[in-house]
Amino acid sequence: MENVQYAEELVREFLVFRGFTNTLQAYEAELSTEIGRNFEVDKILDLVFSVYIPKYQLDRLLSIFSFLKQCFTSPADTVLYTALLKLEQSVLRYYVVNALKSGRQEKVIEFFSVGGSYLMQKREDWIAWFAIPYIKNPSLDPQFRMYFSKEWSDTLVLSFRNFLSGIFNGTRIPALMKISTEKNMIKCLKSDIKQLNNKLSELQALLEVKEVELSLLRRNDHSINSGHKNLLKITTAGSSVGGQAFSGVYEESSTSSTTVQGVNSQTLSSAKSRAEKLCDSSRMSNAENEQILVTEEDFPEVKVDFQETFLGHNSSISSCRFSASGSNIASSSTDGTVRIWTYDSSTPSSKNATIYCGAEVSALSWECRSDRLLLIGTANGGIKAWNADAKRVVCDLSTSKDFPSVLDLKCSPVDPVFVSAAASRRHGSTIFDRTGFASLTVWHMKTWKPLTVLPLGEDPPAITSLCFNHNGKILAASATDGMIHMFDMSAGLQITGWPAHDSPVSSVLFGPAETSIFSLGSDGKIFEWSLHNQGQIIWSRDCSSFR
User: Fold this and answer.
1) Residue 532's pLDDT band (boundaries 50, 70, 90)?
2) 333 in Cβ contact with 258 (< 8 Å)
3) What CA–CA distance (Å, rounded) separates 188 from 193?
């Protein structure tokens, strides 16, 4: 321990010498908490179970596990890291149980309020615990009874002791603890400084290379743009893969074409794979980087196995959706007509139909579990449920008079519910300017009655696009103010949100692994956001030139 104390004095002397007084104060405060407690197991256990938990010092309790993760474990060490995560979960549950036993229900509510976002990352382990503050006698509930027993708490303390004893051996103590002399310590510090200097030199050299590349890219900007106009044509029909369409609210197309092309699922999968490779080649480090320009050769040709032209619409197509099976397509036009058709001639066309809605159609959504029901939202606040088997409207709903425009509809992939995004009206030149305040309503698809209205705060901007995750527990919603909101459908509450765009968000869609979410802005910018680190951009692309 003498070497550790000597190292602490060296750090303190360095901070005083450089005049880093604020850092010195923070350093002294960290030392006073003694998280490591010189790696003495009994003292750390006493700190956790006799100080942090009884006195409800949640931030310091979390700092203990943050310290252990940083210093003694790594995600690469799967067994040890998983054990630490399970131990952390048990200790946090003990924190909740202790607060309930002491009659401090407000501390339990504060616990879920402060750590809600972190706990939602382990949703399956914590979903039932969000209800525990509101259960009258949780100690008698079969689901929580075990955690109130003395046997469980004793087992927890013993497990924590064994874990700390296992990691506080000579093989896992940080390198600073093993320095035996002042000479070795100084040598180690000099080696670290040398490595940092080498890294700095490499980064500077890399920066110079990037500046040269950027200069060359700007010189060729004009020649690239000249061949850039015919690279991609965006139609009013949204692209769909696996029954999910990445399209939301957007400006009406000025084109009068009503041609819709279909390709089979194998071709879609192949095109998606090639598109992902293309996106990887255009990855940017952050949203502020220069737009990456591509040439015509960078877009792979999509092989069309067959092509059919549907000529049933008499005005511009406003939206297009594949059914759950991918066999049927619903398309709508600005004249209030919806048509259901089958693009594959080998598939029976019994579901083909024409639906006259009497108002401009603004949203379409198929039931996720079958091809039976199609929901249709109109600009005058109407929601129609079309039974594709019976070829008739089975329900005709209306939103409230305060929110007469339906902007999007989305069916849950699991439960018999759907969510409608409606908005009030106001004067404006664009579709976004004409939308006012938002309303999100959850409807039951058996009773066709509203279940609840999701909270959005006071005078919220209009919601433009909705998307469920795979189990229907999380709902993502984008808004005209550039925000992305996330809702817990079980609790009916908003759990998080962040500003995503400087312009209205046209569409949102969960990533394939659902560890990220994509957003498309009306300005043509596409972002991929991390769901583990809120507000962090994983990938971005500026496609404004394709609008």
Assistant:
1) confident
2) yes
3) 9
